């Protein structure tokens, strides 16, 4: 990576453990990454796809999903998208113009995927069922989202410790079909391997969350105001944090960025920022400002 002083540096656990820790989770606050060496996981196939339920099943889907997700192997990744599909030719005919609760599944275990999702299939008839064994190269088909046109949206997210009946009811009040929400909302299950401390430490936060709630709204002010009421009402179930991968252009305030990290990690990031980018050159981002006079406390 190239750091603010113009140096091309090789950053690894052996050569610079502090900077290596900061870059993995600190995003582009410490330099420009120009190359990576990445170890891959040997996953050739997975069981995945989607269950698309009609609007009148949304409450049953969310309550069943909250219960189902309590005891899953770490190989199971899942989420539920609540959205009204546009009435456009590129949308599959059964979904055009319809509000659906779209359960998304990616199970990378060796076998047993169909049995694991059986409780979800038993919720009731689905509008579409695309779950299947697939080569990992087709993992991008699971979300079934268009990729040929830009998508303009103002995103927000909140991390949740748990989802109980009251939390689901709150979510339905804002994002269910009866609310006619002017936004999309995705409840994503966390936990699993993400919840474990990494073998090589990094500063990625949010590992104490069981779920993330992502909301994407069109630019209109009224839509964004309605978007923000839902995270506010879900605060009793929140961790107080957010995930920067799902943050939007309105979340660049350093006070908001701070909530994406554990307090001790954020302090260490500001100290390392003071060492590697004291002038805050890399600031057009989710910025971590350098702490003043921190250089003496952190090894360059």
Spans of at least 5 consecutive residues whose pLDDT stays below 50 are 294-300
Please estimate the helix content.
Answer: 10-25%
The number of helical elements comes to: 8
In N-to-C order, the SSE pattern is HEHEEHHEEEHEEHHH
What is the overall shape?
globular
What is the CATH architecture assignment of the largest domain? 3-Layer(aba) Sandwich
Keywords: FAD, Flavoprotein, Oxidoreductase
Pfam families: BBE
Cofactor: FAD
Protein name: Berberine/berberine-like domain-containing protein
What order do the helices and strands come in, and which of them pair?
Layout: H1 17-26, E1 45-54, H2 58-68, E2 76-84, E3 99-107, H3 113-116, H4 118-121, E4 128-129, E5 132-135, E6 154-160, H5 165-175, E7 184-189, E8 211-217, H6 221-233, H7 254-258, H8 263-276
Helix pairs in contact: 2-5, 5-6
């Amino acid at each position: 990576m190239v750091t603010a002083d113009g140096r091309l540096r090789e950053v690894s656990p052996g050569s610079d453990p502090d900077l290596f820790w900061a870059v993995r989770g600190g995003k582009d606050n410490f330099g420009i990454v120009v190359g990576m060496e990445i170890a891959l996981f040997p996953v050739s196939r997975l069981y995945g796809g989607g269950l698309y339920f009609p609007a009148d099943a949304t409450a049953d889907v969310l309550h069943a999903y909250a219960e189902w997700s309590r005891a899953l192997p770490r190989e199971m990744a899942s989420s539920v998208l609540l959205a009204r599909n546009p009435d456009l030719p590129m949308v599959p005919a059964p979904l055009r113009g319809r509000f659906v609760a779209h359960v998304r599944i990616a199970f990378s275990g060796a076998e047993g995927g169909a049995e694991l999702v059986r409780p979800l299939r038993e919720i009731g008839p689905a509008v579409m069922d695309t779950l299947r064994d697939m080569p990992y190269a087709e993992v991008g088909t699971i979300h079934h989202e268009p990729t040929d046109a830009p998508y303009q949206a103002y995103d927000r997210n909140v991390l949740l410790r748990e989802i109980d009946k009251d939390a689901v009811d709150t979510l339905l009040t804002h994002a269910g079909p009866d609310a006619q929400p002017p936004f999309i909302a995705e409840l994503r299950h966390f936990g699993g391997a993400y919840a474990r401390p990494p073998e090589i430490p990094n500063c990625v936060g949010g590992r104490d969350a069981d779920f993330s709630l992502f909301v994407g709204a069109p630019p209109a002010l009224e839509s964004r105001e309605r978007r923000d009421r839902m995270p506010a009402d879900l605060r009793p179930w929140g961790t107080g944090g957010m995930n920067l991968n799902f943050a939007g252009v309105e979340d660049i305030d350093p006070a908001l960025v701070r909530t994406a990290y554990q307090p001790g990690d954020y302090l260490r990031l500001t100290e390392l920022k003071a060492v590697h980018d004291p002038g805050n050159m890399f600031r057009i981002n989710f910025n971590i400002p350098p702490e003043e006079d921190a250089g003496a406390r952190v090894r360059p």
